[in-house]
Amino acid sequence: MTPLQTFPLSGEAALGMTAAALAMVLTPGPNMMYLASRSIGQGRRAGLISLAGTGVGFVIYMLMANAGLAVVFVAVPWLFIALKAAGVAYLGWLAWKALRPGGAGVFEIRDLPRDSGRRLFRMGLVTNLLNPKAAIMYLTLIPQFIDPHRGHQLTQGVALGLLQIGISMTVNALIVVGAASIAGVLARRPAWTVWQRRISGTLLGAVAILLAREVPARAHV
After folding, report:
1. Cα 153 from Cα 130, distance rounded (Å)
2. Per-residue pLDDT of the chain (221 residues; tens, 9 = 90+)
3. Of 98, 73, 106, 85, which is closest to residue 179 (Cα–Cα)?
4. Measuring CA to CA, which residue among 34, 134, 38, 50 is closest to residue 94?
5. CA 53, CA 127: separation in Å to the nearest integer?
């Protein structure tokens, strides 16, 4: 085995996961809405504390999903195909949801009460744990990029999960820091909100089409 093969992920898998993670995090959802709301209503510190709770939620999902998937793929290899098909369908649904007319903008923020740091962290954690977008991503999207021929599936799953978490946390941190300024700009230019949805929806649709070609491939054990 060459040194390149000992690395958990191929370059193609890393780039694919990066593109998918960016498309997912840029699509409006419960996490983005809550973090932007907290940052605008209670300040950047509150948004960052909430983001820390969101990050812990991602880690919990990643560990639980990968520990189970490593066993399931060995025992039921055909499930790999079903999971990939579900992931493609979910990406397609997110793309349609982002592109359809009449969707609400991320920064159309409702008023929220001021809370303590502990409560902000807990609410960020719970928001993510109850977010179906996060749950389905770890159960259906990450398996798309696992190569059974490359090495241990658990190691690949954790590496992919950490890559996704790093991208999600970085993008959401930038949103938290700039939420108030973004909200002001979009309030003066509502057409920009429409273009944000169109761009994210197009990215999701492109990723779904690319991954659909790999759905028939079975997991080999």
Report:
1. 26
2. 444 455 667 778 888 889 888 888 887 667 887 888 888 878 888 889 999 999 999 998 888 887 776 566 667 767 767 767 776 787 777 778 777 776 555 555 555 567 788 999 999 998 888 776 777 777 777 877 887 777 777 788 888 889 999 999 999 999 888 876 776 676 677 676 677 667 767 777 777 787 777 666 554 44
3. 106
4. 134
5. 9
